[in-house]
Amino acid sequence: MLPVPRRTGRRAAFTLVELLVVIAIIGVLVALLLPAVQAAREAARRMSCSNNLKNIGLACLNYENRKKTLPQSTSQWGFEYRTVDCEVSRTPTDVSFDPPNGYNGKGWIVDILPELELNNAYDRLIAQIKEDKSFGARATRGSGLGAIEVRDIVSTQYPILTCPTDDSAVPSDKIWYWDSGGVFTGVTNYKGCVGDTLLSTDSTPCSRSVDPPQTIQTGSPDVHNTMSNNGLFQRTSSAEPIRLRMVTDGTSNTFMVGENVVSQDFHSAQFFSDGDWATAGVPINVFLRGATEDDLKRQYWQQGRGFKSQHPGGAQFVMADGSVHFVQDSISTLAYRGLATRDRGETVGLND
Amino acid sequence: MRKRTWQLAAIGLLATCCGCGGTYDSYVTGEVTLDGNVINTGTVAFVPTAGGPAAYALIDSSGHYDVYTGNERGLPSGSYGVTVVAREAPAMERSETGGPPPPGKSLTPAWYGLAEYSPLKYEVESGSNEIDLQLTSTPPAGWQSPQRRR
């Protein structure tokens, strides 16, 4: 019979202190690593978002190549088709305009759907608009873009229009004109730059009454009541199309499309509607913390029409030359406004 | 004794990790009053007089504000003009055409809404600043309502 080997001396084991030290070291390592992992994940999401912007920018440029104008929006309000120059003529000029497809409230993003390989959605939306020329950006009316025939399209959340960093970019039933009737509409994280014009509070074309944090600029026309905006997209652009040759500030110094955060925008986050624009008259990344949904909808909706993103420290833009840039929160407000205008002659660049 | 050393090292490490400061060197908080009465709604903007980002705040229901630049708390130190506009809640649920309601009546005098007329000018120092915005309904000298351009 073989002798059973017996352990001699001290039994092999860890003491409590040793275990605690090991756990503490692992804890510190994890604490050090976790922010790095989160940052890497955010960097990937940001890259995906910048890829979306690049594609949208190229789609706009391809459209311009084909049609000789940038993608167009058709305002739902015919009476607002007027041009006004606050500094020179001070006289509103009414533009005689009879859109072939009525005042259907279509946004510019619809125009580039074919360039984004969404031809079927485009064909059906346009067929519906042509058949029913009434303004229908309202689910309860059931006409135009609100018709039941295209409900499946307007309810779709397209990945190319979605920034992965914004958790709130999901179909919503809380956005103006569609917030009754329980219809969920697809939203966009990307909005065309209307320039640096203001959203006034007294509905005159050259208002001098705006609410902070909009920064006033003398002689700036109101973004809502005129078509005298100095950016690349406005909701009345089908009456006066904007062409790239009008970008005299230089295409690499002019914002084309920038980012939006859906949870701050209960006013016009739908991708197909004529509200798919934002203004640099509101500083970059303005978040109205503490405002309720009702506040954002009815009281502070004008302050919510600026560009913003959930990326730390700034927001991304595609310029009119198709390049994508990250613009920091700390950009000088005047430089930011200068970059948003197409022909005001500011000598600003992305590094100002 | 060795355990004490470990603990100290761990605390030191944690402190280094969490001690990262914000992007901006100044913070501004305060209370907004008009003729001594608390204003508990509206928005505030800090517009730099010499280039730089404009900062902003929402006035909370107790009349206090806390300034942000972009998505981060604080602002660069320097001199600022301050604008304040507070409004009554909109009177209507929706406008007649179904759009957002017209803005409510302004609770603050018009000159506080325009950076070029607002008498509120402050030097924001590095660190925490407590700036109470005390508005008065007496217009500043030489105030004229800006002409409506049309």
Number of strands of chain A: 7
Give, in order, the helices and strands of chain B.
Answer: HEEEEEEEEEEE
* Residues in β-strands, percent of chain A: 5-15%
How would you state the average pLDDT of chain A, rounded? 88
Q: Which sheet architecture does the biggest sheet of chain A show?
A: 5 strands, mixed
Q: List the quaternary state of the chains.
A: heterodimer
Number of domains of chain B: 1
CATH class of chain B, named Mainly Beta
Walk me through this protein's architecture.
The complex is a heterodimer of chains A (352) and B (150). Chain A has 352 residues and is of the alpha+beta class. Chain A is globular and about 110 Å long. Chain A is built from six helices and seven strands. Chain A has one domain. Chain A starts with 15 loop residues before the first helix and ends in a 12-residue tail after the last helix. Chain B has one domain (22-91, 100-135): Immunoglobulin-like (Sandwich). Helix content of chain B is 11%, strand content 31%. Chain B has one helix at 2-18; strands at 26-34, 37-38, 43-48, 55-58, 64-66, 68-69, 72-73, 78-85, 121-124, 127-130, 133-135. In chain B, the strands form three sheets. In chain B, strands 1, 2, 5, 10 and 11 form a five-stranded mixed sheet that branches. In chain B, strands 4-3-8-9 form a four-stranded antiparallel sheet, with no helix packed on it. Chain B is globular. Chain B starts with a helix and ends in a 15-residue tail after the last strand.
